[in-house]
Amino acid sequence: MIKFLKKKIKEIIRPAMFAAVLPLESVTVKPMAEIIAGLIGWLLAIVAGLAILFLIIGGIRYTRSWGDSDEMEKAKKMVIYVVLGLVMILVSYSIVITLDDVINNGGGGGGAVSITNTSVTPISGPIGTSFTIKATITAAAGVDNATVIAHIQSPDETDIITITLSPIGGGIYSGNWIATANGPYFVDITACDLSSNCKEADNI
Questions:
Q1: Of these four, 17, 56, 99, 115, which has the most CB atoms within 10 Å of its CB?
Q2: Quick one: how far is CA 93 from the chain centroid?
Q3: What is the 3-state secondary structure (H, E, C) of 40-72?
Q4: In this predicted model, which residue has the larger pLDDT, 105 or 69?
Q5: What CA–CA distance (Å, rounded) separates 31 from 100?
Q6: Are 117 and 136 in contact (CB under 8 A)?
Q7: What is the distance between the alpha carbons of residues 160 and 186, in angstroms, rounded to a whole number?
Q8: pTM of the model
Q9: How much is the pLDDT for 133?
Q10: Where are the beta strands (DSSP E) in 56-184?
Q11: Does the pLDDT of residue 99 top 90, yes or no?
């Protein structure tokens, strides 16, 4: 299901291409798991805001209902339900954070792989053009150089060719690919640390 959603989202938000390859932006590229976790976080924040609003309303109703036992009981129940809702929101958010850590960091906390400053140059070219793929990759546990791979893909996410990127210093990894057919093509980069925690930078 996650893979299906990931594919559909890519189809919607990937920009149009004019040549053989679409460059990765020179910014941190987040995997889909992080995007989903972020969306859930925003939704929980909105729900929490509404819960606080209803808590205030319940408090006002309770204060203004002196002498009316029915209204006091309704206001009391509203406050209780809102408090329980807030507790559930906090628990849900904790679960989301924990799952995000497990998915992206292998649950190792601090052992996460970071893939940033990704780029493809030149940004376009005819058949025979040599494209240079670069990324800055770091990991607290150390990067497993053999796992730093660029996946050249067709729009349906099928790998056309994979290229192992080599370290050139300063945490930067680089590799070259010569286009053998007209595009468009997309590039994903995967890397793991020495503790087998892996990460993928999607070209989205």
A1: 115
A2: 16
A3: HHHHHHHHHHHHHHHHHHHHHHHHHCCCCHHHH
A4: 69
A5: 11
A6: yes
A7: 10
A8: 0.48
A9: 94
A10: 113-121, 130-139, 149-153, 159-164, 166-169, 172-178
A11: no
* Residue whose entry in the numeric block shows the structure tokens 């299901």: 1
- What's the pLDDT tens digit per position in 180-202? 877 788 899 999 998 888 888 87
CA dihedral 44, 46, 50, 56 (to 10 degrees): 90
Q: pLDDT tens, 82-97?
A: 888 888 888 877 777 7
Contact (CB, 8 A) for 78 and 58: yes
Per the listing, tokens 């080599």 go with 166
Kindly state the tokens that stand for 53: 């609003």
Tokens of 29: 């590229």
Phi, psi of 14 (to 5 degrees): -70, 130
CA atoms within 13 A on the CB side of 62: 14
- Residue pair 96/106 in contact by the 8 Å Cβ criterion: no
